Amino acid sequence: MTLTFINVVAAVIIAIAFVAANAAYLVWAERKGAGFIQRRPGPLENGPWGLLQPPVDGIKLMTKQLLIPGGVDKIIFVIAPVLAMFPTIVSFVTIPFSETIVAHNMNIGLLMIFVFGSMSAMALLMGGWSSRNKYSMISSVRAVSQAVAYEIPMLITTITVVLIAGSLDLMEIVGKQTGGFWHWNVWPLKAGLFNILMPVSFLIFFVCSLAETNRAPFDLGEAESELVAGFHTEYSSMGFGLFFMGEYANIVIGACLTTILFLGGWDCPFGLFPGVWWFIIKIYALICTFIWIRWTFPRTTIYSLLNLSWKVLIPISLFNLLLTAGLLKVF
Amino acid sequence: MNEPIVLQPDETFVLNVGPQHPATHGVLRVKMTMDGEYIYDAETVIGYIHRMHEKMAENRPYTQYLPNLSRLDYLSAMAYCHGYVLAVEKAAGIEVPERAEYIRAITVEMNRISSHLVWFGAFVLDLGGFSPLMYAFDDREQILDLLEAVTGSRLTYCYFRFGGVYNDIDDDFIEGTRRFIKRMREALKMYRKLVTTNVILMKRLQGIGPISVDMCQRYGATGPVARGSGINYDVRRNEPYSVYPEFNFDIPVYSECDSYARYNVRMEEMEQSLRIIEQGLDKLPGGPVNPEKKPKTIKLPPGDYYSAVEAGRGSFGIRIVSDGDKSPYRLKLRSPTFSNMHLFDEACRGMLIADALAFMGSLDLVIPEMDR
Amino acid sequence: MLRYFNDILMGLWSLIIGMGITFREFFKPKVTLLYPHQSVKMPARYRGHVELIPDDEGQPLCVVCGMCEKACPSNCISISGEKPEGSKRKVLTSYILDFTKCSLCGSCVDSCNFGAIRYTKEYNLASTRKEDYHFDLLKRLEESKK
């Protein structure tokens, strides 16, 4: 694929459209899901099943005044929400939805996603720090320590998969998993050659992506009962909207990565008709689980979160890495 | 991590939690001096909704003070009315028919369950879990519907009268209550599985917010807060009133002193309340619900009267000093939350803010009752 | 070491149970009422604000004894009456209920020895003007006759 200007523009536009549509309708799905779990109907009034709620919300957010409180660090305050949204859009460029549907495949695609993924923590830090609000500041400090703690086990598990596939290219990682569900990395059958820790590894990756995206039960940055609204306390209008959309876009990225690394990407579970719909089904199944988890559990605290990361996830994922490397060497 | 951490901070900042804050559930303000995320010092500021309930008693007849009692603790209004009518009945020597006593016990216990359900929901909401609140409110709605059908009101019941109750209960209520008991037992099982044994919740509550027996005694903490610290004190058992001696029920006591102990005390209290209601319905005698002969205007003989009941949040005491007039000379309300809340300043030192707010939730504060 | 793994597994198991419960709740029927479209039926004993009970001819049963006025803890009832020429009992000329102060305690109905007032079932009483809450119950009674 040649990297022409038009190609890039088209790719970015499609990525933005995809991210925005997803972010908007995931909010709807979340509210609807929460409603059903809590035995109430959820959004209902706008359109059938409340389907017009996201555009209405969007219009409301956009027409509101963007309030900049006195004494904030203006430049950083304004940049932060943009920075929350921008890296996720860029990350989408390299995600392969099927063998043919990918904006721009790169041989270091995985690396790129992680590089841009860590930028979202930066956005939270900037937003929280510049707000000149004590709650926001506590929240941003929390968000960063959380991001640092969870990036490590996430990367270690990713390296395990990279070792198995022998590539950082997302296409190739999926390519190694084609041919039915028993070929996927989540099962110990083929991946890492009978490495029984692979399902655990999948779980670790899933937990880490929950924590990375600041989702409940790890939404310490937001923690509405403690820190009011955390890093976006002072944001109004689209500033808040961008943070909000960034969160949901991050969820989509997390689900996409989990699908690619562990669930065989666009591969069909039974080896039949592989294609983009399998990818879509898988990511939305994962997103539904994200939503389901959020409305089930209470929030953790910062120290139990760090304990979980440093005492459980990192040792196990490190052990898994060693085991995989050993198994690959032996067989 | 569970031991209180002694801090020598170089630099602190003041975090003003409340009067408008999601975790204070009302207009309580806590001035926290923070060292990072750790609380170095805390000062609770109350009085934002002080309504002079005690002073109001002094300038109105005894009967007219009844509606005020429902406005103290809007979640378990029945128990507060009960305390007041008991005090006045004792002083004026009004006989209460047995049926009325049973109805009082049944409705008070139902109100206790509904109050604990709100606490349960709000507490888990403080911890970040939203769905249990909705389930709890669904169950609470059943109680409110039942009580509304009898008393005519959903929160501020104003149901008790001197010498009896305002309305007799009917068969619909008895049937509905029996159905509710069945439903509530299932729900409590569900709460235990969904919330009580949840590892995240246990990690957040176990060992958090220790209140020693000594501290409880110094501050005069009562109710589930004291019982969570191993103090076996329940007014219903220690200073029995009404028909409580007739019932067979347990007082849950936990000696762990942490938030989880207080949580468990309340969860078990709901089960015990169900038992009391069930026995009350079985034993419910016939007869009138109001005495045949009741003084037209109530005048207490001069003296000093005190009566205490076990309200949803602890021991609620009411002291009436009468000079023989139509209205009391002085009326003092001893509200449990007021004592329980003042623990917070001392107990939360060295805690993380997240733990402190969970701890505050476990004290079950109802601000209007504290400010009176 | 064993405890470490046991803790992890038990923790995970409790989380799975929790998710199982919310999964079941997801498919249960809804319990809420869609309020503006549907509304709850008030029980027979619902304590709304008070209204006058008419006799067979549509005249209020009230004899203007003033008991409700005295019984009200918030002084929100003000009544007045007059004795027409040749009549034995007083006739009500105005019955104003200041609902801004009323706490719906029911003392007025309790104190009435003539069964002349009762509770309404009304609860949709929102308004933006304070004056809307000064109910003239006599006027209300006449309107209800029509």
Summarize it.
The complex is a heterotrimer of chains A (331), B (372) and C (146). By secondary structure, chain A is an all-alpha fold.
- Could you give a short account of the major beta sheet of chain C? 3 strands, antiparallel
Determine the oligomeric state from the structure.
heterotrimer
What's the architecture of the domain at 50-145 in chain C in CATH terms? 2-Layer Sandwich
Major sheet of chain B: order of its strands? Answer: 1-2-3
Number of helical runs of chain C?
4
Count the E strands of chain C.
5
Q: Could you say which structural class the secondary elements and strand pairing of chain C correspond to?
A: alpha+beta
Helix content of chain C: 25-40%
Helical coverage of chain B, percent range: 40-55%
Structure in words:
The complex is a heterotrimer of chains A (331), B (372) and C (146). Chain A has 331 residues and is mostly helical. Chain A contains ten helices and no strands. In chain A, helix 1 (5-37) crosses helix 3, helix 4 runs antiparallel to helix 5 (134-165) and helix 5 (134-165) packs antiparallel against helix 7. Chain B has a single domain (13-371), classed as Cytochrome-c3 Hydrogenase, chain B (Orthogonal Bundle). Chain B has helices at 53-58, 66-70, 77-92, 98-126, 131-151, 171-196, 199-205, 213-219, 224-227, 235-238, 259-283, 336-341, 343-347, 353-363, 367-371; strands spanning 13-17, 29-35, 38-45, 160-161, 164-165, 303-311, 314-322, 330-334. In chain B, a hairpin with a 2-residue loop joins strand 4 and strand 5 (164-165). Chain C is of the alpha+beta class and 146 residues long. Chain C is built from four helices and five strands; from the N terminus they run H-E-H-E-E-H-E-E-H. Chains A and B meet through helix 5 and helix 10 of A and helix 4, helix 5, helix 7 and helix 14 of B.
Notable characteristics:
heterotrimer, A: 331 residues, mainly alpha, 10 helices, 64% helix, globular, B: 372 residues, alpha+beta, Cytochrome-c3 Hydrogenase, chain B, three-stranded antiparallel beta sheet, 15 helices, 8 strands
